[in-house]
Amino acid sequence: MLNGFRDWANTLQAALPPDVTAELITCEPSANPALRLQVDSPDAIASLVCWESGAFSAEVLDVQTEKYRCRRIGEFTPGQPLAEQLADFLAALRSPT
C-alpha cells in the first residue's frame, strides 16, 4: 500500500501551485509502517497518513476559522484510484468553506 501511496503523493506534489508546499514524511517505525503527507497552503493545513495495512487518516484545517474542512479515517479499497477515494480531502484542500 505504501508504494502506491508514495507514487500518488509524489504526483500530487508535482501538480501543486507554487504557494502550496507539501512534504512526504516516513513515520516512526512500527509493526504497521506509515507515511504522512503534510500540506500547507495560504488558507489550509492538511495531513494525510497512510498505513501499510491500508488504513488512513485525512484532515484539512482551515487557517482562518480553525475548523476542519475534512476530517475522517478509513480504509483504502484496493484497486480503486486514491484520487477517487480521497476526493473530499482534495476538494477541501482546494476551496475554503
Can you describe this structure?
The protein is α+β, with helices and mostly antiparallel strands and 97 residues long. It has one domain (2-94). It has 3 helices and 5 strands. The chain has helices spanning 2-15, 82-85, 87-94, and strands spanning 21-26, 34-40, 44-51, 55-62, 68-75. Strands 1-2-3-4-5 form a 5-stranded antiparallel sheet, with helices on one face. β4 and β5 (68-75) form a beta hairpin. The chain is globular, with a radius of gyration of 13 Å. The N and C termini lie far apart (31 Å).
Classify the beta-strand content into a percent band: 35-45%
Number of H- or I-type helical stretches:
3
- Percentage of helical residues? 25-40%
Q: Could you give a short account of the major beta sheet?
A: 5 strands, antiparallel
